[in-house]
Structures are given as structure tokens and as C-alpha cells.
Amino acid sequence: MQGIYSGAGVGLQILGPIFLTQIFSNSGPKYIWIFMLVLTSLCCLLVLIFFPRMISYKKRVQRMQKQEKLIHSLCVESDL
User: Fold this and answer.
1) CA angle at residue 43 from 40 to 49, to 5 degrees?
2) Where are the domains of the chain?
3) What parts of the sequence cross the membrane (predicted)?
4) Which of 29, 41, 47, 67 suits 55 as a labelling partner, its CA being 20 to 30 A distant?
């Protein structure tokens, strides 16, 4: 799957400038600006929607350490 994402990224780096240049030369900067505005707005909207679900790295490490301690304690109890 990583190869597909990598290949798509390379393809967009090659084809993107060609298409954007064609659009720019045919219609001027108007549609490029609209595209960038829509894309930026979409990204900001997604950040606002998923912001409550984001977990800081520090909290994630603490959660993992707590789980490891629980697993270790269960393993020690089962050895008795």
C-alpha cells in the first residue's frame, strides 16, 4: 500500500504542474486561487472536525506505559 501512495505522489508531482500551467494559461489565476481556497478551507474544516480526537504524544506514551504495566501485572499473576 505504501508503494501505491508513493507512486501517486510522484505522479502528482509530475502531472500537477502540467495541468495547473494549462489551467493558468487558459483562464488566468482565478481558478487556481479558487482551487487553493477550497482546498485550504477543506483542510481547516477537517482539522476542526477531528481536533477533539487528537491525542498528544505525551498522553499516548503514558497510555501505552499504563497498558504495559497492566499486561506485565497480569503475566506475573498468572505465573503464580
Assistant:
1) 140
2) 2-79
3) 7-25, 31-51
4) 41
Enter the pTM of the model.
Answer: 0.54
Question: What cell does 36 get?
Answer: 487553493
- pLDDT tens for 47-56 read 999 998 888 8
Contacts of 31 (CB under 8 A, 6+ apart): 23
The answer to whether the CB of 21 falls within 8 A of the CB of 29 is no
22, 24, 50, 70, 75 from 38: Cα distances, Å: 19, 17, 18, 47, 53
Cβ-defined contacts of 56-59 (< 8 Å, 24+): none
